[in-house]
Amino acid sequence: MPTLSAGPPVISARQLSKHYGDFKAVDGISFEVPAGESFGLLGPNGAGKSTTMRMIGGVSQRTSGDLTIMGLDPEEHGPEVRAHLGVVPQQDNLDEELRVRDNLLVYGRYFGLPMSYLRPKADELLEFAQLTEKASAKVDALSGGMKRRLTIARSLINEPKILLLDEPTTGLDPQARHILWDRLFRLKESGVTLILTTHYMDEAEQLCDRLVVVDKGRIMAEGSPAQLIREHSTREVLELRFGSERNTTVAAELQGIGARLEPLPDRVLIYAQDGEAALEQVISRGLRPITSLVRRSSLEDVFLRLTGRSLVD
Amino acid sequence: MTERVPTTDGAVTAPPYRLHAHKPEVSASRARAFGSWYYAEHVLRSMNSYRWTLLASSIGTPVMYLFAMGIGLATLVDRNSAGAFGEVSYLAFIAPALLASATIMTAATEFTYPVMDGFKWRRVYYGPHASPLNTDQIVQGHIIAVTVRLTVTTIIYFVIVAAFGASPSAAGPVAILVAVLSGLAFGLPLMAYSARIEEDKGQFALVMRFIVTPLFLFSGTFFPLDTLPVFLRWIGWISPLWHGTELGRALTYGYELPLWLAAVHVLYLVVLAVVGLKLARAVYARRLGK
Q: Which of A55, A109, A140 to mutate to probe the B interface, most B CBs <10 Å?
């Protein structure tokens, strides 16, 4: 059930920049996020995603540009802006000396929430995060995925309408990631605006209505995952492996097949509307790849196209 | 590590919010008004999880020192001192110094490793930093919590001192406040220093060995400062422990201290604490707001 509503954007950034000395971590990015949207910043490590998130979160000052959250400038109204947000940082910062449930209680206190609200709320959120049985466990006894879910539960203690998630599933195993995605999807369905950074394209495809591809502090492209793939890649991709020695030499013989050719150290990518047809052409030229795979284009391909580099290095 | 995946109950969308929090505006105004106390509450709850260790050391330390110095050493000293410590016993002479030094040492622990923990090891400061609290409130909340801890520890210490009969004067309990103030005068500048440390290369061990220990030994703790050669007395003059001890002695056994000098001692301690607080606020703001 889409809950996109017309109205002023909940987040608006214009020419937002953050410099550390000569280094431009964020270099003039502009975007708007309407209420209820799930908005992603996709990019490699060091692209400026986390810095952008910290500025939105009202904890890092911008060098220049404009930024408003719920119409408020975080530098003038820090506490007010942060009171609207739920924040899931890249690195967990739970208090390991406290028990699982107590972590939620103390966090809620920062918002001046009374214990009469916090006690039942903590139980409700533990249930949501599937941690009810761990309520009185010590935090260090939790697995990585559980800590992450606890951090998410903690971020919801004030019932934020905007949730900032900085690489929410980095470092988690596939099963833990899927549990987490499911929880985030439920939040999205209930109308919470999600802002997330990721360098996983599957995560972006799963969760984001719209995203910006960020590299070196700048926005390279913007759109829905499907739109970006349509604009910057072909429908299908043929992946060929000729052995690491031969990939680049064979690439010369593949010229003219498909719309575009991308020789990588370990494989050659052929972008084509019809991958199977491209493969037939390859075979008809007398080339015998060790393996071949036809797949749909993904955001990884978009990123490769836009920056010449892959997302995860 | 496997995680239990509960079979979903079939409910498509359980809205995650069933209760209702107050509005963000209310959160923000409460945080602006009481944020320091909210963070202090958190730190105290964390401390509470190892309260038995804290309590044991709060009781064990004074008992140990008072037996060793106040009974063991004092017997020998009192027999040979011929009134070198005024009219009082050696035990009464060192008791206020031990009291203040115990508070300072506790402050030295609380304003070093936990600060590093907040910024680097477990990054506990970054949680409240993302909430409506501001960085000054994180600094102050931490200080409030430590002050509570120092006060409790010092009260226990004083009760034991009094039980040993080492605080004959009626004004004695005021020495608790002086000791806590000395702890902050030493602890807050140290807090600012700790907050600047990006990497732990054993600086805290050096602080303990080359600052805390010499201050403990040369601040007129075990003998009057003026028995030291002049070129060593400056250690006492700059030491919050000496200022705290002088005040403590006046309070616990009526050691003669002109009012103006008492005022200087108090002022020195207050200035150190205030300067430390201001520095700490600035360092925290810079480091958390990067």
A: A109
Residue A189: closest C-alpha in chain B: B13
**Tokens 């410099």, located at residue:** A19
Asked if A121 and B19 come within 8 Å (Cβ–Cβ), the reply is yes
CA B126 to chain centre: 23
Q: Is A98 exposed, middle or buried (0-12, 13-18, 19+ CB in 10 A)?
A: buried
DSSP summary character for residue A190: T
| Residues whose CB is less than 8 angstroms from the CB of residue B179 and which lie 6 or more positions away in sequence, other chains included | B96, B99, B100, B102, B103, B150, B154, B157, B158, B244, B248
Distance, CA of A18 to CA of A49 (rounded, Å) = 11
Cβ of A148 under 8 Å from any chain B Cβ?
no
| Global pTM value | 0.89
pLDDT band of residue B6 (cuts 50, 70, 90) is: very low
Give yes or no for B258 touching A (CB within 8 A). Answer: no
Judged by a CB distance cut-off of 8 A, whether residue A94 touches chain B is yes
| Set of chain B residues whose Cβ sits within 8 Å of the Cβ of A129 | none
DSSP-based three-state secondary structure for B141:
helix
List all residues of chain A from 24 to 83 with a beta carbon under 8 Å from chain B.
57, 59-61, 70, 77-80, 82-83
Q: Is A195 helix (H, G, I), strand (E, B) or coil?
A: strand
Surface-to-core class of residue B275, CB atoms within 10 Å of its CB (0-12 exposed, 13-18 middle, 19+ buried): middle
In the predicted structure, residue B5 carries a pLDDT above the cut 50? no
Please state, in angstroms and rounded to a whole number, the distance separating the CA atoms of residues A150 and B21.
19
User: B32-43 pLDDT, tens per residue?
Assistant: 999 999 999 999
Contact B27 A87 (CB under 8 A): no
Tokens of B79: 């027999």
CB B207 within 8 A of CB B108: yes
Radius of gyration of chain A (CA): 22
